[in-house]
Amino acid sequence: MSTPRAENVGILAIDVYFPSRYVDQAELEQHDGVSAGKYTIGLGQSKMSFCDDREDISSVSMTAVQGFMEKYNISYSDIGRLEVGTETIIDKSKSTKTVLMKLFEESGNFSVEGIDTTNACYGGTSALFNACQWVDSAAWDGRLALVVAGDIAVYGKGAARPSGGVGTACILVGPNAPLALEFPLRGTFMEHIYDFYKPDMSSEFPTVDGPLSVTSYVRAVDHAYSAYLEKLEKVAGIANPSLDDLDYVVFHSPYTKQVVKGFARMVYNDFLRNPEAETFAEVQQFKDLSREESYGNKVLEKAFINVSKSQFASKTEASLLAARNIGNMYTGSVFFGLASLLSQTPFEKLNGKRIALFSYGSGCAASTYSFRVRADTSKIARTIDLAARLDKRIKVAPADFEKIMELREKTHNAQEYEPTGNIEELKPGTYYLQKIDSKWRRAYGRIPLD
C-alpha cells in the first residue's frame, strides 16, 4: 500500500544548542589592542560562544539531537531520515550522521536514511532540502525526518577570530507543518570561487580571502534573490515582486553587519527592477551604474543601507539575536536566525506570513527560499526559550579564552588523548568527549540531567 502524498511539508519543530561559555566582544577588543568598536560595531557582534577540547562536532550534534527529542517528546522510532549539514570535519570518511545513530540504538531503529552534506555554510540548507523533498516524494515511508545543522567556527589569532562561534540546530521535518516550505519558490546560485576554504587537513582554521568573500556573498544575494523573485512572478503569479512580498527575511550571518549589507543588497535589486519607484528617489545617481561596478562601491552600499533601514527593522532585526550573541555557526547560522525570529515574534504577528531565508556557503553555493506560517508557533518559541538561555551562560575572560583556543589548536587531530577541559561548566544534558584512543576512536559521556 502506498503512503498518501504529504501536504504542507516543512518544519514541525526546531531547537538549538550552543555552549555554556562565551567571551564578550568589547572585552576582546581591549585584550586584542584594537580600536573600540572594531568587533562590536564593525562586525556587529556582542558575544561569541566557544568550546574547549571537551566538545567536538559529534558531541555538539548529539547534545542538540538528544535535547530536541526529549524536549518535544519524540520517539527515535518515528524518524526515517537523518540529514546532517556541517563543514566541521573530524573524519574524512565517517559521517557525523553515523555517530548520531548511537542515539537510535535503544529504540532499535536502524533504518534511517541520509548522511552528511558539506559545502561551507550551505550544507544545512542542502540537508533541509533533502529532508523536505524526501517527505514530499514517492520514496517517503510516512515517518519524519531530522535535520542537524551546525559547526564549530574557529580562526587563528588575528582579525578573523572574532567572527567565530559554535552552535547546532536540530529541525524536525514532516507534513502539515507550522512552517510549510513553499515548493517550488526557490532561487539558487552556484559558482567556483576561492573565498573561504579548508585545504589544510591538519588544522581547524580556514584559508580566507576576506574582501573576496564579502563580494561573493553580495553576488550570491543578487543572483539567488533575483531567481527567487522570478519564481514568485512565474509560479505564484505576483506581478513585479519585491521585498514587499516577503514579510520576514532571515540571512546566513557570518557577522551581523554582513546581514545589514545583504538586506540592503536585496533593496538594491528591487531598485534595479523598478528604479522609478518613489522609495528610491534618494538613490537615482546609481541608476546607470552596472551591477559589476556596484561591487565594492562603499557609497552605494551606505546609500542602500540608509534606504532600507525601516524595512530591515521590521523584517530582519528580530532574527539576529543568536548571531549577535553567539557568533557564526556556519551551517547552523541561518537556522539560528529562524529560531531567533520565532522566539522573538508572537504567533499573532507570524500567522499566515511568508518567511524568506537566504543561505550562503563559500565556494560558493546559495539559495533564497521561503516558508509560509500555517499553524501556531508558540510551542516552538517556548521550547527554544532563546533569550533566557543566552542570559544563563558563563562569561570567560579574553585571556582564558585565548588559552582555550591554543589548547584546541595544539590538540587538533590528536590520538591517545584525554581532554582536560572542565566538564563542571557544561550544561546538564551536554555530551562531551571522554577520550580518543590510539586508533582515533572517540568515546563520549553525557552530563546528567537535573
Automatic annotation (TrEMBL):
Residues 181-445 form the Hydroxymethylglutaryl-coenzyme A synthase C-terminal domain. Residues 6-178 form the Hydroxymethylglutaryl-coenzyme A synthase N-terminal domain. Its EC number is 2.3.3.10. The active site is at residues 87, 121, 252. One of its GO terms (biological process) is acetyl-CoA metabolic process. The keyword Transferase applies. It catalyses: acetoacetyl-CoA + acetyl-CoA + H2O = (3S)-3-hydroxy-3-methylglutaryl-CoA + CoA + H(+). Keywords: Acyltransferase, Transferase. CoA binds at residues 213, 257, 261. Belongs to the thiolase-like superfamily. HMG-CoA synthase family. PANTHER family: 3-HYDROXY-3-METHYLGLUTARYL COENZYME A SYNTHASE, HYDROXYMETHYLGLUTARYL-COA SYNTHASE. Catalyzes the condensation of acetyl-CoA with acetoacetyl-CoA to form HMG-CoA. This is Hydroxymethylglutaryl-CoA synthase.
